Amino acid sequence: MSASQKYFRRWFAWGTLMLVAGAAFLGAWPALSEAEPAPTSEENRELDRARREIRLLDDIYKTAIVLITKHYVKEDSDLAAGEAFKALFAGVKEKGWHEVRLLDATGESLNEANKPQDDFEKNAIKALLAGKTFYEEQSQENGKRYLRAATPIPIALEKCKMCHSNYREQKVIGALGYKLPLESNNAAR
User: Fold this and answer.
1) CA dist., res. 176 & res. 36, Å (int)
2) Is the pTM of this model over 0.70?
3) Which fold has domain 3-186?
4) Domain definitions of the chain by residue range
5) What does the alpha-carbon distance between residue 67 and residue 43 come to, in Å, rounded to a whole number?
């Protein structure tokens, strides 16, 4: 195993550990405050459950990214927490749980893969830059229903600017874009 593979494995292991530990520190990230409609039917209950799950995931992921950055990113050559979490997000998707992507909101993406790719992601970035704290749309693919949502990523620590040289003093530098199957899709899992 090469030195870079060992380094990546070490950071991935730390990232996973910090993700779990981050659940204990959920209060470190501001709660999303926009009102959710009260469920009035089975479909609304599924939607309400998916919204709650996205908010939980969002708190866990963002808290863990901040903790990793705060405690383990010391210099430019260290593995950025965002890069470690992209590997985590790929593993979660591969196992069929949900999808989550890092999305650039600066218009000067440091990584082409982070550019908003479809209408949902482009509309989400516009809404988040305009001040929304949660943007959502429902979609359907191959007969399955999904909730797609996005939440803003601000520069949470001064240290974040080590990796984000494209930061231009804006409140939102990126977003997490989620795609979560609605409950009836998960019956077989």
Assistant:
1) 19
2) yes
3) Beta-Lactamase (3.30.450)
4) 3-186
5) 36
2-60 confidence digits (pLDDT tens):
665 555 555 555 555 455 444 444 444 444 445 555 545 888 889 999 999 999 999 99
Amino acid at 77: S
Cβ atoms 138, 145 nearer than 8 A: yes
What letters, b where the CB count within 10 A reaches 16 and e where it falls short, cover 142-165? eeebbbbbbbbbebbeeebebbbe
Whether the CB-CB separation of 137 and 177 falls below 8 Å is answered with no
State the DSSP code for 32: P
CA 81 to chain centre: 12
| Burial class (CB within 10 angstroms; exposed 0-12, middle 13-18, buried 19+) of 94 | exposed
| Assigned token pair, 64 | 């863990």
For residue 100, how far is the Cα from the chain centroid? 6
